[in-house]
C-alpha cells in the first residue's frame, strides 16, 4: 500500500487528502477555506472525527504548513516519513503538458513560465510544490493538469475568431479549467445513470469561488466556459468573467497606465462577486449581506443569470442534455443558487424538487416530469488525481 498526499490549491481554498492506494482508502482529508481572507476556516476529517477551527488569515504557504502539522497531531500518520508521494492539481499545462507528469526541476521551471495562463493558480501551485519539496525532501511529486481534459475539444469550440496564424504560432486556444473535476463528474454521472458515458450528453457545473461549466457531448468535452486563462467565462469570486477585450486598452488610457498588468490583475483579483458587491468574494457573506445591500444582491443575480445563460446555450449546442450536474463549493452547498438557476431553466422543461434540493443530499434532485435529470454529485478531484499518480508510479516501476 502506498500513502499519497493530494494537494488541490485553488484561488480561495486548499483541499487535501491522504489516500492509501491502490485501495483508494481516504486516511484523512480536509479543507482550508477563505484563504487570504479574515477568518480562515480549517477543516480536518479522520474517519468519523471532524474538527473545524477559525483562525487568523492564512495564505497558501501557512495553510500547507498547518495541514502537515495537523496530519501528525490527528494521528493520520505517525510521522511525515510515511508519505510516499505527493500529487498536485495544476490548472494550466498549456500545450506543454497534455498528461500527468512526475515533477523535476526543469518541469517546475516550465510551470513557472505558464503562470500567465493562470495567474491566480499556477504561481500558488508552484509555491506549494516548492514548499513540499523542502518539507518532504526526497518524496516524488507529481502534477495532474486541469487543462488536459480539454485538449479533446473540437477545433470549432477550442479556438477564437482571430487570425489563424496567431492560434497556431502562439498556441492561443481554449484551455479551460477544472478539467479534473469535470472529467470525474461525467464519469460519476454515467455510473449514477447506469449508462455508458459515450451515450450521454451532460452539462457539468463546477461552481465555487472559481466557476466553470462544461458541455459534454457523447461522453466527450465539447465546450467549456473558461478560455485561454481562467479569468473568462462566468463571473466568479474575484474574477470578472467575460469582458470586452477593448476594456483593457480603454482603462489603460483612463488610468494613465503604461502596461496592462494593473488592469489584468484587477480583473483577476478585485473583480467578480467582490468587485460588484464591494462586500466579499464568498457567496455565504453575500447571502447575508443581500438582505440589506442592493449591490450584494446584484452580484448574486449576475451569477445566477450567467449560469442560466451558459447552460441554455450549451443545452442547445449539444442537442439537449441527459443531466445537469452540480458540484463545487457553491454547486454542492448552496440550495438557493441551485433553486434560482433551475427556476430560470423551466422554459426548457427542467424542474427541481424543492425538498430534495433543500436537503442537499448527493443524488437526483429533479421532479418526476423534469425534461432532464438534475444531479448533485460531490466532486472528488483528489481521488482522480490519486489514480493518475498511482498509474505513473506503477509505470515507473515496470
UniProtKB/TrEMBL annotation:
Site positions (Transition state stabilizer): 178, 239
**One example GO MF annotation:** magnesium ion binding
Pathway(s) where this gene product acts = Metabolic intermediate biosynthesis; acetyl-CoA biosynthesis; acetyl-CoA from acetate: step 1/2
Alphabetized, the UniProt keywords read:
ATP-binding, Cytoplasm, Kinase, Magnesium, Metal-binding, Nucleotide-binding, Transferase
**PANTHER family, A to Z:** ACETATE KINASE (PTHR21060), ACETATE KINASE-RELATED (PTHR21060:SF15)
Set out the biological process GO terms recorded for this chain's protein.
Answer: acetate metabolic process; acetyl-CoA biosynthetic process
In its UniProt entry, what is this protein called? Acetate kinase
Question: Which cofactors, if any, are listed as required?
Answer: Mg(2+); Mn(2+)
Amino acid at each position: 500500500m502506498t500513502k499519497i498526499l493530494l494537494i488541490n490549491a485553488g484561488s480561495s481554498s486548499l483541499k487535501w487528502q491522504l489516500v492509501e492506494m491502490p485501495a483508494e482508502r481516504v486516511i484523512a482529508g480536509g479543507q482550508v477555506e477563505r484563504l487570504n481572507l479574515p477568518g480562515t476556516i480549517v477543516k480536518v476529517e479522520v474517519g468519523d472525527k471532524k474538527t473545524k477551527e477559525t483562525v487568523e488569515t492564512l495564505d497558501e504557504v501557512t495553510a500547507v504548513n498547518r495541514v502537515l502539522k495537523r496530519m501528525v497531531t490527528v494521528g493520520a500518520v505517525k510521522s511525515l516519513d510515511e508519505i510516499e508521494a505527493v500529487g498536485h492539481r495544476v490548472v494550466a499545462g498549456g500545450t506543454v503538458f497534455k498528461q500527468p507528469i512526475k515533477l523535476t526541476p526543469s518541469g517546475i521551471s516550465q510551470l513557472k513560465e505558464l503562470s500567465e495562463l493562470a495567474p491566480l493558480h499556477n504561481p500558488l501551485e508552484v509555491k506549494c510544490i516548492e514548499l513540499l519539496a523542502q518539507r518532504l525532501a526526497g518524496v516524488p511529486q507529481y502534477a495532474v493538469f486541469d487543462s488536459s481534459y480539454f485538449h479533446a475539444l473540437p477545433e470549432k469550440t477550442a479556438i477564437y475568431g482571430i487570425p489563424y496564424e496567431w492560434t497556431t504560432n502562439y498556441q492561443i486556444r481554449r484551455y479551460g479549467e477544472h478539467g479534473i473535476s469535470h472529467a470525474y463528474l461525467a464519469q460519476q454521472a454515467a455510473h449514477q445513470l447506469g449508462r455508458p458515458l459515450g451515450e450521454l450528453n451532460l452539462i457539468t457545473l463546477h461552481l465555487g469561488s472559481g466557476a466553470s461549466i462544461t458541455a459534454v457531448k457523447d461522453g466527450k468535452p465539447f465546450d467549456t466556459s473558461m478560455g485561454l486563462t481562467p479569468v473568462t467565462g462566468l463571473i466568479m469570486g474575484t474574477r470578472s468573467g467575460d469582458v470586452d477585450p477593448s476594456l483593457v486598452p480603454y482603462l489603460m488610457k483612463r488610468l494613465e497606465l503604461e502596461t496592462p498588468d494593473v488592469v489584468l490583475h484587477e480583473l483577476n483579483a478585485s473583480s467578480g462577486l467582490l468587485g460588484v458587491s464591494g462586500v466579499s468574494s464568498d457567496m455565504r457573506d453575500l447571502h447575508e449581506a443581500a438582505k440589506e445591500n442592493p449591490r450584494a444582491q446584484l452580484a448574486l443575480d449576475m451569477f445566477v443569470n450567467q449560469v442560466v445563460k451558459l447552460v441554455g446555450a450549451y443545452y442547445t449546442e449539444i442537442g439537449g442534455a441527459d443531466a445537469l450536474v452540480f458540484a463545487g463549493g457553491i454547486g454542492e452547498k448552496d440550495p438557493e443558487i441551485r433553486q434560482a438557476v433551475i427556476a430560470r431553466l423551466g422554459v426548457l422543461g427542467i424542474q427541481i424538487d424543492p425538498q430534495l434540493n433543500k436537503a442537499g443530499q448527493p443524488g437526483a434532485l429533479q421532479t418526476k416530469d423534469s425534461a432532464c435529470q438534475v444531479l448533485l454529485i460531490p466532486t472528488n478531484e483528489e481521488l482522480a488525481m490519486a489514480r493518475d499518480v498511482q498509474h505513473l508510479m506503477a509505470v515507473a516501476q515496470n
